[in-house]
């Protein structure tokens, strides 16, 4: 199982690396002698679980502070069903969502693919489940965070990081629950609690511990957990 997962991550790494490189080589730097100074900082974080669950996040931080995140998470549930979550999220320099697309698939029969697309500039969230699609308005009165994409889908490293970054910019957060097709405003301390090493993020019944680098550990309501196995070290 581990070998298969590692091959899966390795194959996707090539695609994502090419995508991030293309983003960094945007026309803005072409033919500009200052292009060499406008390089993005890229990093990869790998998480491992107790039952064979795995997650990997690729992050690129541009010279303007824009943060691009791509994550692929596979969760092995006690029922032996497998859930996969794929995320593409862009944060602005403040740490707020510019756009986000989250897709989940399941190995269980008769469970449709579910996708959530967030567009704060439009104040709109779109949900696709199988062949059906719906949208709902979301106020832009606070940074957006997301949770509850579908039944039995736990939080991911990116979802936790988005909440942590958003909490750095405002005293309130706008939590989007895709499974309920609604959002609600909540004080940031109901989602993000500061700690000596970073912050603890609570998304539904899942929790994550973060440091100044990224997410360190996730604890799911199912009893499974994910721990950061590799990635850039925290320099104190």
UniProtKB/TrEMBL annotation:
Residues 1-22 form the signal peptide. PROSITE patterns: PROKAR_LIPOPROTEIN (PS51257). The keyword Signal applies. Keywords: Signal. It comes from the Bacteria. This is Lipoprotein. It comes from Polyangium spumosum.
């Amino acid at each position: 199982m581990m070998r298969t997962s590692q091959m899966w991550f390795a194959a996707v790494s090539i695609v994502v690396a090419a995508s991030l490189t293309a983003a960094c080589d945007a026309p803005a730097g072409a033919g500009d002698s200052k292009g060499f100074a406008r390089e993005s900082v890229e990093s990869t974080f790998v998480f491992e679980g107790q039952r064979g669950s795995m997650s990997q996040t690729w992050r690129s931080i541009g010279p303007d502070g824009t943060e691009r995140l791509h994550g692929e998470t596979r969760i092995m549930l006690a029922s032996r069903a497998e859930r996969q979550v794929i995320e593409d999220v862009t944060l602005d320099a403040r740490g707020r969502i510019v756009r986000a697309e989250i897709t989940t698939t399941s190995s269980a029969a008769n469970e449709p693919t579910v996708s959530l697309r967030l567009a704060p500039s439009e104040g709109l969230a779109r949900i696709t489940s199988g062949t059906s699609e719906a949208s709902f308005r979301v106020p832009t009165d606070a940074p957006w965070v997301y949770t509850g994409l579908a039944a039995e889908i736990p939080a991911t490293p990116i979802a936790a990081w988005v909440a942590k970054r958003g909490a750095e910019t405002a005293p309130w957060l706008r939590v989007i629950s895709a499974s309920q097709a609604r959002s609600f405003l909540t004080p940031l301390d109901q989602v993000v609690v500061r700690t000596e090493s970073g912050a603890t993020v609570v998304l539904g019944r899942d929790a994550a511990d973060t440091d100044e680098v990224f997410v360190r550990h996730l604890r799911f309501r199912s009893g499974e957990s994910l721990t950061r196995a590799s990635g850039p070290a925290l320099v104190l």
